[in-house]
Structures are given as C-alpha cells and as structure tokens.
Design a protein that fits this description.
It comes from Modicisalibacter xianhensis. This is Putative zinc-binding metallo-peptidase. The protein is mostly helical and 159 residues long. The chain contains 6 helices and 2 strands, in the order E-E-H-H-H-H-H-H. Helix content is 57%, strand content 4%. A hairpin with a 2-residue loop joins strand 1 and strand 2. The two termini are 29 Å apart.
C-alpha cells in the first residue's frame, strides 16, 4: 500500500505478500487496516504541510522530511537500528521523518478507533472521562492515549 499525490493504492491485499513482508521486516502488527491508517496519515501530512507552522513543528518533533527518501528506504530494508524501541513505535518509523510521522499518526488513529468502538458498543469503564465521551473530539492527545491504552489492556484481558 502506498500513496501518491492524494491517491492510495493497495498492493498488500494479497495475504501471502503481506505475510512475507511482515516476517521479512519484523513487523508483527502489519495488517490492511494498520496500513490504511498509515497511508491516511501520509495524506493528512500532505494537507497539513500547506501550513508553515505545521512543517516547523513536524521538523522539531520528527526530523526534516526533506531528507533523502530513497536512501532512507534502503537503510530500512537493511534493517532497523538496534535501539529503535527507545525512540520509535515500530521498526519502520526510524526509516524517515515522514514514516515516523505516519506510524505515529496511524497509531493515534488506531487508539481513537478502539476508544470510539468501545463507547459505540455501549460498554462502560471507570477509565472513560464521562458517559458518551467522544474520543474523536478529545483535544488532549495524552488523555486519549491513556484511556485507549487502558481500554485495550482490558479488552486483551477479556480475550
């Protein structure tokens, strides 16, 4: 799956290809929905990059997105840095600042979806800020992450 000038193409719908890449790149959580969120995050960056203040903030947090992408991609395929877990969410995130952004934003979308699905199903938890809380309207990202992570752990325990 990749994006190009506003269009997302799906080249990993084939489960054999997706599984092969997941194993080769040590990406234990490589699924179609995760990839879709990742590519949506790239499109979100593309739209937000029209604002200079966004680019400055992005560069402060993730690095300079103008870095050589083909070289970064080759470094990724050579293997992630040994200490990637200290600063990145996934093995792909250290490849390039835009990939770090997309992995981070994609994971935030994932956590938001988990919390939204929990609320939409009519489930309750003492961790929810209030009844009918809307995770998509939550302005505090740290609060959203905390609540979604807590809900996820509870759901995983039930599973």
């Amino acid at each position: 799956m990749r994006h190009a000038e506003g269009a997302i193409s799906v080249d990993e719908a084939d489960p054999v290809l997706r599984t092969t890449r997941r194993q080769a790149l040590e990406e234990s959580y490589r699924t179609m929905i995760v990839h879709m969120r990742h590519e949506i995050a790239h499109m979100l960056w593309w739209r937000l990059s029209l604002c200079d203040d966004f680019l400055n903030t992005l560069r402060d947090m993730f690095g300079d997105e103008r870095a050589d992408y083909p070289a970064a991609r080759q470094r990724h395929y050579d293997g992630p840095p040994a200490d990637w877990k200290q600063s990145f969410l996934t093995t792909y995130a250290p490849a390039h600042p835009l990939e770090d952004w997309a992995e981070t934003a994609g994971h935030l979308l994932h956590l938001t979806d988990i919390a939204d699905s929990f609320v939409a199903a009519g489930l309750s938890s003492s961790q929810l800020p209030h009844f009918n809380w809307d995770p998509y309207s939550e302005p505090d990202a740290a609060r959203l992450i905390y609540v979604a992570a807590d809900l996820s752990m509870g759901i995983n325990n039930v599973n």
